[in-house]
Amino acid sequence: MSEVQLKDALDTLKSTGVRITPQRLAILEYMISSMAHPTADDIYRALEPNFPNMSVATVYNNLRVFRESGLVKELPFGDSSSRFDFVTHDHYHIICEDCGKIVDFHYPALDEVEHVASHVTGFQVNSHRMEIYGKCPTCASQTTVN
């Protein structure tokens, strides 16, 4: 986990008047170190041994605070559970249609999409989102074996 990312995130929360509780800190540290795009339930299960009095609702409420502060993005992909991504830079996602695994990737040429869309349509573009779907290497190898 990057100490710089944690310090920056804590500074962001403090600047918006958010109090740093032990639960918030633990959720934030988990989000920064997780590359798995966890659900709120995943985070709850990972932290529950150290925070037995913390509820899933507490995790959801803190993720909402982080989302409103711009630290976390909610990703409503695939299954009915939202996944959460600690935001460090603009990037895209490729999602396995079998197991739901989500992997980040960046492709600089895609940054031009907003400019072109604005130029062609006259829209003022605020953001864009792109997902690519397929089978991860693990699921693809299991398919060929069966």
Automatic annotation (TrEMBL):
Keywords, comma-separated and alphabetical: DNA-binding, Repressor, Transcription, Transcription regulation, Zinc
Keyword Transcription regulation: yes
Pfam family, one: FUR
Keyword Transcription regulation part of the UniProt annotation: yes
Superkingdom assignment: Bacteria
Alphabetical list of PANTHER family matching this protein: PEROXIDE-RESPONSIVE REPRESSOR PERR, ZINC UPTAKE REGULATION PROTEIN
UniProt family annotation: Belongs to the Fur family.
Entry protein name: Peroxide-responsive transcriptional repressor PerR
Lineage, uppermost ranks: Bacteria, Bacillati, Bacillota, Bacilli, Lactobacillales
